[in-house]
Amino acid sequence: MPRLAAWIEPHPHGLYLPDADAWIDPSRPVDKALVTHGHADHARGGHGAVLATPETLAIMAVRYGPQNGQPIAYGESLRLGGIDVSFVPAGHVLGSAQIVLKKGAERVVVSGDYKRRPDPTCAPFQPVPCDIFITEATFGLPVFRHPDTGAEMDRLLAALHANPDRCVLVGAYALGKAQRVIAELRGRGHHDPIFIHGAMERLCTLYRDFGVELGELIPATGLKPAEMKGAVVLAPPSALNDRWSRRLPDPITAMASGWMRVRQRARQRNVELPLVISDHADWDELTGTLTEIAPAEVWVTHGREEALVHWCMTRQIKAKALALVGYEDEDD
């Protein structure tokens, strides 16, 4: 019996579609790349041509300069070398997409990174029935069960209100997580100015350009400590313990990441207020998504592959790990 999706070739540096002479999320420059979203472990510079959502192309332009890009809107379909290609929302960050591939009677969904929690800054994940579902497994262990996002934001606000002479310095990835934390705070009634590290300014402006409301944001660089007392300050995780943060008013160091479930990670980073806020699906959401979509076969990549493969096999779902290279720990 011929194997499913023989027209897709997994390689260590990406998925190759010979019929279209195109790669999906390649980790090195190629002539033609289909890109699921703008994080650096999926979107690289230097490609000859890039097919992605308009938002992802804009993000790549900010990070790598202008792209030779072909924008593909959600739901739009095109044909590449006998393969029908479309992009549907992945719910990960602004512009993130699952790439749906159809050839003959077979449909394959390359999910990229995804989450199932509501997020005011991006379109929600759209389940697509398919023969093969290619899933991430960043938090692919049963220990990872993310708490309610609203409850985590309430913890942040409680710390802020209890310490009016300090600030809360939140480490958050500059693309997606920072904007989500800001939008979640606004949704819970926090309309005071939020101060941001300079590395976040261009991406926050880009989100606004695409209609995501973030409220008043003030660059933190050059301000006096007293001006930031009783305020939320956002910075990349790498800035939490460097010279930049030493000028803040006695900061309560927080970090927004799914990895904050692991206490040792919080201690290693000297995080006083760990906030378990993730832009990836947790274990229950990964397995629930597979149950909902019910593919004949699952390919697992990007994370704790073995546990999710084992879960599939115990339920008579054929599964394998792809072990793609080039993925980075983005602090979730």
Automatic annotation (TrEMBL):
This is Ligase-associated DNA damage response exonuclease. One of its GO terms (molecular function) is ligase activity. SUPFAM superfamilies: Metallo-hydrolase/oxidoreductase. Gene3D superfamilies: 3.40.50.10890, Ribonuclease Z/Hydroxyacylglutathione hydrolase-like. Keywords: Exonuclease, Hydrolase, Ligase, Nuclease. The keyword Nuclease applies. Its EC number is 3.1.-.-. Residues 2-173 form the Metallo-beta-lactamase domain. Pfam families: Lactamase_B. The keyword Nuclease applies.
